[in-house]
């Protein structure tokens, strides 16, 4: 085999998995308030993808710090605010949501991420839908 090809393959396997598989991904959030007439579909970006993790089968032999699993999480983000249409005057019609600018593999930060797997929730509207492209 060509030595250049082998080196390129090894470099890609070593560095490519952690860099290319965790990235901003398009996502649609459906937001509605009981008091408002419409559901708002917001197109945004979230961090999604695969991060290399350690096999925890040898947990009795390893330190606890070696067992932490990396997740695809925000490196840089900003918040945007959308106006939910059809809300009465006594209701706050705004919804703020994160927009992923860049992502990284790292420990989950509970200050801005939900790090616990919960039961599966559906992401849909029960009211007439309006689309918000930010």
From TrEMBL:
InterPro entries xrefs: Cystine-knot_cytokine, Glyco_hormone_CN, Gonadotropin_bsu, Gonadotropin_bsu_CS
Signal peptide boundaries: 1-16
Keywords: Disulfide bond, Glycoprotein, Hormone, Secreted, Signal
Matches recorded under PROSITE patterns: GLYCO_HORMONE_BETA_1, GLYCO_HORMONE_BETA_2
Record GO terms (molecular function): hormone activity
UniProt keyword Disulfide bond present: yes
GO CC, alphabetical: cytoplasm; extracellular space
Subcellular location: Secreted
Domain Glycoprotein hormone subunit beta: 21-125
Biological process annotations from GO: G protein-coupled receptor signaling pathway
Pfam families: Cys_knot
Primary location recorded for the protein, binned into one broad class: secreted
UniProt similarity note: Belongs to the glycoprotein hormones subunit beta family.
Subunit structure: Heterodimer of a common alpha chain and a unique beta chain which confers biological specificity to thyrotropin, lutropin, follitropin and gonadotropin.
Alphabetized PANTHER family for the sequence: GLYCOPROTEIN HORMONE BETA CHAIN, THYROTROPIN SUBUNIT BETA
Record protein name field: Thyrotropin subunit beta
């Amino acid at each position: 085999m060509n030595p250049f090809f082998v080196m390129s393959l090894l470099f890609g396997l070593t560095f490519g998995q952690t860099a290319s598989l965790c990235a901003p991904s398009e996502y649609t959030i459906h937001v509605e308030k009981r008091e408002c007439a419409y559901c708002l579909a917001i197109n945004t970006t979230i961090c999604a993808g695969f991060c290399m993790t350690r096999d925890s089968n040898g947990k009795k032999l390893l330190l606890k710090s070696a067992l932490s699993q990396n997740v695809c999480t925000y490196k840089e983000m900003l918040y945007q605010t959308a106006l939910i249409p059809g809300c009465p005057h006594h209701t706050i019609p705004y919804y703020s949501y994160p927009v992923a600018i860049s992502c990284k593999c790292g420990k989950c930060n509970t200050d801005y991420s939900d790090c616990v797997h919960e039961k599966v929730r559906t992401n849909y509207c029960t009211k007439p839908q309006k689309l918000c492209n930010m």
